[in-house]
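Reviewers of the previous submission asked for a worked example of the structure-prediction workflow described in the proposal, so we include one complete record here. The input consisted solely of the amino acid sequence. No template or homolog information was supplied to the procedure at any stage.
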Amino acid sequence: MRVLVAEKIGDSGVELLRKHFEVDEGAEHLEHIEDYDGLIIRSATKVTAEVLAKATNLKAIGRAGVGVDNVDVPEATKRGIVVANAPQSNVVTAAEHTMALLLALARNIPQAHASLTGGKWERSKFSGVELMDKTLGILGFGRIGQLVAHRAQGFGMHVVAYDPFVGADRYREMGVEQAATSDEVYAVADFITVHLPKTPETENWLNAEAFAKMKDGVRVLNVARGPLVDDEALQAALDSGKVAGAALDVFRTEPITEHPLFSYPNVIVTPHLGASTAEATDRAGYQAAEQVVAALTGGSVTTAVNVPAVAPEDLEVLGPFLPLCRALGRIAVGLSGGLGGLNIEYLGRVAERDVRPLTVAVLLGALSGHTEDEVNAVNAPAIAAERGIEVVESKRTHARDFADLVRVTVNGTRVAGTLLGRRNRPHLLEAVGQRFNLELQDHLAFFRYIDQPGMIGRVGTCFGEHGVNIVSAAVGLDPETADTKAAVMVVTTDGPVPQEIVDQIAASDGFVSGTAVSL
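From that input alone, the workflow returned the following structure tokens.
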């Protein structure tokens, strides 16, 4: 077999490949991609549908890095080509860069260096603060956040972290205080570092409201994603003295050489160096090479982003349940507001099958958008395990009222669903402690309220005033519930429901709570 290393990777990765295959290096060989069984790339090589059409012998692509935006993954999947990345290659590097900026921020190191090399000796001007006995607040407690916590503890710092998608046991194991909300972090932290994924929900996470809740003189770091911080709000907080200093490695648009914050004497900036070390580059190349070796020699490809989760012989039976399970995971997490543990029950005929692919689908729905790495069918169980999320799976071959039933419980919040009709349409049967029957759509809003005339009309009127079109609605009343006045309304819409509209309704007379969920 032959493998092409189209871009420069570390020698260790190339040596590993040479132990198994003939290896050519250089992008010029892409003109003869049909000669190769495996391909190693970094970010510059574009593996388009046209390239893949020529790659008649290609069986595996290894991306020496995290993102696979430069690969047409759906087209590769159609052609049976495994695409794998190296998602853990830069976590140590990112954590260490965070610590480097933390120390530089505390001791004014870049400013002092510039002053001294500029011909000045200004000891008193650059007096700093110690890390010992200070509180580090971590927003986002995934792999990188946990590595930062461990290193900060070595400096004698107290660590408090917020991430509702990490199990309580993981916090206890690491000796880290678990915050129930980000506000609890703001109230006590002397330093705050963000390690959240970039999603519509996390954009501008550190905004004017967040800065106002922080301690006076707090210092802020961002080595994750530029859009997590509202630049104008940070600038205002620096101007007011609320924030004593900031260290930024990432920006809303990159590359960037001019920015209002660059002129601030108490702001330290680096040009997105979080993953830039020789070791990380070498590690990424080696991990990508490992995956290509595994794919071409019949081994286990542990970081594939497109390996199908369902065996062909089971696809006919389990396949229709995958969207349902993913939706139930998403809804359960959306209603519970976090993910400390996951209980999945399979009832009826589906319980006679190997339901592990369905459990992975539930995990995909539950974790998607809440981790720093993109979650897929291969890495979802590993990501759940490293976050201390316990997954309990049970099966019973009998289901009351339905041939098949799937129940998902997260933090005491249970949802249930099934498939109905010849087209196996997914239906939601239970949520927020109430039962109903509603065909699932991509966008839903849930309301708990006191059962009385006119409540559905009030929701419809408010949605209409804001241009939100309702597709269907259902009301749940559980006759077994002692409080017969409690009801749950589920509304499906043809577009996302802004949370501020849901909050407006939930705050009005007779309503108890409201939650919007998009699948």
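The two ends are 42 Å apart (CA to CA). We consider this example representative of the routine output the project will generate in years two and three.
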